[in-house]
Amino acid sequence: MNTSDVIALTLDGKPYEVPAATTLAGLVESLGHAPEKVSTAVNGLFVPRGQRQARVMQQGDAVLLFQPIVGG
Amino acid sequence: MSHPTLTRTPADAWQVGEIRLQSRFLLGTAGYPSPQILQDAIAAAGTQVVTVGLKRTLAAAGDNGFIAAIRQALADSGARLLPNTAGCRSAREAVQLAQMARELYDTPWIKLEVVGDEHTLQPDMFELHAAAAELARDGFTVFPYCTEDLVSCRRLLDAGCALLMPWGAPIGSGQGLLNLFGLRTLRERLPDTTLIIDAGIGAPSHAAQALEMGFDAVLLNSAVAQARDPVAMARAFRLAIEAGRLARGAGVMATQDFAVASTPVGGEPLLLGGAA
């Protein structure tokens, strides 16, 4: 891909690339997660499920995905 | 198996908002040997509230069926989920994680944890207060994991917390109720506040002590999960908690520094008075 076609971001702290114009919803889907199975944050801020489609990935975005786990 | 003298009555229910609860045993779900043992422990505990967490997807590497076991146990028992913000070190971080937990678990309940010391995992009461105020304004039912500091606890209530969850001892330490004066003071000074001892409980006797002192419930995890037989230990805690609650209602006798004979012998002991 041409560099202008690629968005470099970090996913759960690791480098990751997605095609330009990828949305957060698209990223979640491309990773194989059902939308309701994860919660998302970009640059430290929660992005509700209903807003993922409108959130287009930008260069340098730090994306975190969270899932349920046991806890005390 | 029920015990006739430990039967709960509806009159002894407690409430979180509009939700009425009978069990005073809140159980954590981490560190169990297997999903089946966790599921069985939840059933044996008779708990109506179980805690869960959130983790980054890459770090989680699957949960090996534990979440499915929790959901099955909840379907069987009708218990509720209480997600936590474990691992947070700032109010900002905790607020974001709480919002993700609300979406993921579909509940406004949040066990708010903001740690201020790495060695003791002591709650940071300043960050906790800031996060609690924001989350309460946003409609959360905040269960703050806090210290037993009375004035800070009052501030948490002012911030909109539904109840308080003071620590008994550092998380996972199993030391029981370390600061009896502070905890007793908290109970006496906040008589109308729901108080749940969270963290540090190591043995059923610690839990019974908390209920005898008038605390409304206890939340624990490691003491059950790390037992040789977690299911049996869950039941032991259930009985101890019910016993402690019954004792609180019955009225524990006052202590004193001198002996008071309990056997009403009266007069001279027989052997000394009539042996010649």
List keywords for this structure.
heterodimer, A: mainly beta, five-stranded mixed sheet, 39% strand, B: five-stranded parallel sheet, three-stranded parallel sheet, globular, disordered N terminus
Give me the side-by-side strand order of the main sheet of chain B: 5-4-3-10-9
Measured by residues with Cβ under 8 Å of the partner chain's Cβ, the largest interface is: A-B, 24 and 36 residues
The ordered H/E elements of chain A are EEHEEE
Gap from first CA to last CA of chain A = 45 Å
Beta-strand content of chain B: 5-15%
DSSP strand tally of chain B: 10
Residue runs with pLDDT of under 50 for 5 or more positions of chain B:
1-8
| Physical arrangement of strands within the biggest beta sheet of chain A | 2-1-5-3-4
Distance between the termini of chain B: 57 Å
**What is the overall shape of chain B?**
globular
Output the helix-strand order of chain B.
EEEHEHHEHEHEHEHEHEHHH
Anisotropy-based shape of chain A: globular
Average predicted confidence as pLDDT of chain B: 91
What's the Cα radius of gyration of chain B?
21 Å
Query: Helical amount among residues of chain A, as a percent range?
Result: under 10%
Account of the 3D structure:
- The complex is a heterodimer of chains A (72) and B (276).
- In chain A, β1 (6-11) and β2 (14-19) form a beta hairpin.
- Chain A contains one helix and five strands.
- Chain A is mostly beta strands and 72 residues long.
- Chain A is globular and about 45 Å long.
- By secondary structure, chain B is α/β, with parallel strands linked by helices.
- In chain B, 41% of the residues lie in helices and 15% in strands.
- Chain B is built from eleven helices and ten strands.
- Chain B has a five-stranded parallel β-sheet.
- Mean pLDDT of chain B is 91; it is low at 1-8.
- The A-B interface holds A 11-14, 31, 33, 38-41, 44-46, 48-49, 64-72 and B 28-32, 38, 51-60, 63, 66-67, 70, 83-84, 86, 92-93, 96-97, 99-101, 103-105, 171, 221-222.
- β5 of chain A pairs antiparallel with β4 of chain B, so a sheet runs across the interface.
